[in-house]
Amino acid sequence: MTRIFNPADPHATPMVNGVPYRIVRRVLGGVPCLLELPPEGGPVRAVCLVFHGAWAAKEGKLGVYSMLAAQGVAVVIPDAPLHGEREADTPAGLNAREYVWESVRRSVAEVPALLQALDDTFGVLPLWVTGSSMGGYVTLALLQSQSRVQRAAALITSGVWHEPQVRTPELHAFLDQYRPLTNAGACSPTPLLLASGEVDPAFPLDRHHVPTADAMRRAYAAAGAPTHFQEAVFPGVGHYTSQRMRDLTVRFLLAE
């Protein structure tokens, strides 16, 4: 069907700061995703993967980083394994912490196929990554494992990865391979933002942000790139991505 729109009163579309963007659903590399894209025909200059937290789904991140789409960035929000449309894939017998880490492990393992599908769609473009809470775990692991990542922002998360409730050897091996606190050198010198809430009950600052930031600061200094690591703590913010945290993340990702 051909649709004709009145140029004086066109079709209502998602907007950010007066700039339209598109929302589409795709299955990329077997992963159900929501994409926020520039207007039809607009150039895409970078891809930003956005990873949600535990017991959430991709729909919860719609609109959070849409200002990137208005700047020519393809914002790609996957459903994490065992979440959203993929909840039925959850293995039996996992405790809560194993559920989180099995999702993280599978997320990291499937990113190469996801990136190939994105390359096939948009061409090979600069890659940025951000994630909150569990998505921050994924972000920190991808910073180590995917050399294509050019900027990363890990929000309301931790690099300590001390998980006594995790029992399976496969998950222990994953934790040991990618634990940021002991593998911070594998993150540097790719630009990294670590941002936390001051009163986050899930990740108290002294036990999570502080040691993670200390390890990263030392690693980035040793790599000769101390300014490539940035950290921020947001007063009064708990375990959520606040507006100011979001705005800082957008500025960080868009920085040259």
UniProtKB/TrEMBL annotation:
<feature type="domain" description="Serine aminopeptidase S33">
    <location>
        <begin position="43"/>
        <end position="171"/>
    </location>
</feature>
<dbReference type="GO" id="GO:0052689">
    <property type="term" value="F:carboxylic ester hydrolase activity"/>
</dbReference>
<dbReference type="Pfam" id="PF12146">
    <property type="entry name" value="Hydrolase_4"/>
</dbReference>
<keyword id="KW-0378">Hydrolase</keyword>
<dbReference type="InterPro" id="IPR050261">
    <property type="entry name" value="FrsA_esterase"/>
</dbReference>
<dbReference type="InterPro" id="IPR022742">
    <property type="entry name" value="Hydrolase_4"/>
</dbReference>
<dbReference type="InterPro" id="IPR029058">
    <property type="entry name" value="AB_hydrolase_fold"/>
</dbReference>
<protein>
    <recommendedName>
        <fullName>Serine aminopeptidase S33 domain-containing protein</fullName>
    </recommendedName>
</protein>
